[in-house]
Specification:
Immunoglobulin-like; mainly beta; 22 strands; four-stranded antiparallel beta sheet
Length: 267
């Protein structure tokens, strides 16, 4: 008797990536009543440093809030409810606070009211994967006196590295605390911001770190590119375009210290 071959149709959901993050999107993108959700992750910094233990709330006019706490790296991932990740698509106001972190006065809020009670933060969530970062400042906080705009391309083994976090930190001890931070898009391109109103990185010599954690938060890139970075760049006052070429871990044999390479014009 001849064998019968059954072909099962496969439907692929095409998700738009607004920031090029390389992780897989959540399986469910709709609520029980049909509202469309976008998957939202990001990083929160305060005066250029990761803000840990903060509450991040996205709110719009037609549905409930979506919330998340930040981890030790300032990373958050919104949840709509206990079962669904993400936030409804559309415009949102955003509140960020350290609510209840002061044991002596649980009602005290150390962050400026413009980030919570009287928030000025707004953003738009789109269907698919969203990487939305917030770079906050406190009144009177030290900031670098001069910044230079910084963009660039990150390659891993010659291919664009999507969804990586790029940090430039000044080598000058008197330049003020803070880092220029950016995320690579689907083309591997990044643009640094120092605060929500100041793009770029400190002028002068900068240590460069590149991070690409997996879904469980484990770093996938070599320590030479982040924890024990050997990368550096000199930022000038005019436009800076820095390509960063990385390599994967070599499984065997002697390994030489990798150096950042500038891709040729033909690439």
């Amino acid at each position: 008797m001849p064998q019968r071959t059954t072909t099962l149709p496969i439907t692929l959901a095409l998700l738009i990536s607004i920031s090029g993050c390389g992780q897989d999107p959540p399986r469910r993108l709709r609520t029980g009543d049909g509202r469309i959700l976008g998957h939202v992750i990001g990083w929160v910094t305060l005066d250029g440093k990761p803000l840990a233990g903060a509450q991040v709330d996205f709110m719009n006019k037609v549905t409930r809030r979506s919330s998340s706490g930040t981890d030790e790296n300032g990373r958050y991932e919104l949840k709509f409810n206990r079962k669904l990740r993400g936030a409804p698509t559309g415009d949102h106001s955003v509140r960020i606070g350290l609510f209840g972190n002061d044991a002596a006065d649980p009602a005290a809020e150390p962050l400026p009211a413009i980030y919570n009670a009287n928030t000025i933060l707004k953003t738009t969530v789109r269907e698919g994967y969203n990487v939305i970062n917030f770079h906050l400042t406190t009144p009177g906080a030290g900031q670098v006196a001069e910044l230079g705009p910084v963009v660039g391309l990150v390659l891993l083994d010659g291919k664009p590295l999507v969804g990586a976090r790029v940090e430039f930190t000044s080598e000058k001890s008197d330049s003020g605390s803070g880092s220029g931070i950016g995320m690579t898009d689907k083309r591997g391109r990044y643009q640094l911001v120092f605060t929500e109103k100041r793009p770029g990185a400190a002028i002068g010599h900068n240590h460069v770190r590149v991070f690409k954690p997996d879904a469980n938060g484990k770093e996938t890139l070599r320590p030479l590119y982040n924890a024990k970075t050997m990368l550096s760049q000199f930022v000038e006052s005019e436009k800076n375009d820095f390509p960063i070429s990385l390599t994967s871990i070599v499984g065997s044999g002697a390994e030489k210290t990798p150096q950042p390479k500038v891709p040729s014009d033909s690439r």
